[in-house]
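User: For my dataset I need records formatted as: sequence, then structure tokens, nothing else. Please produce one.
Assistant:
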Amino acid sequence: MTRKKLLGAQVKHLLETVAENGNQHLTEVETDLMQTTFLLGEAIEKLSASFMAIHETVRAQQDMVDTLLAAGTLPEDGAKRLKALRAEIGTHVNSAVTGLQFQDMTTQLIGRTVRRVTGLREVLDLLEGGSAGVLEDAPVEALAEVLHNLNRMVESQAQKLESTLWKPVQQTHMESGDIELF
């Protein structure tokens, strides 16, 4: 292979690797941000519905207590109805806790997104630092070696980042169950 072709092949490979790696990480960042937006919307809807249900159930319970106090006697199904309302409040509180789990998952997604951006920055820093070895008057073989080494470092960094980021977003050990997404 001629020196010019050797150098051209190394430059082409380096640029393709950087472009592919950068595009892949930016696509993943975009996906994580869209998932985060979706999760936050779902969590807010769930929390809002849960808190409104808690409010309505507590209001119904208070109406029952007011009726009991006004009557001075306990209706036949009064105790049973109060217990049912108490259980309903517990159900709504558990539902609100499930909504709060989504906040933890969105925090995980945002953290993963930040690590992707940091990883991409590290790849670009490798290129910047490695480009110092490219001297204008260097022989083609030396330039090809610098580019070859840069290619290996960029590929290694990309593989290292990818292996640490492909983990599902999950929430465990809450009363309302385990959730795993993505």
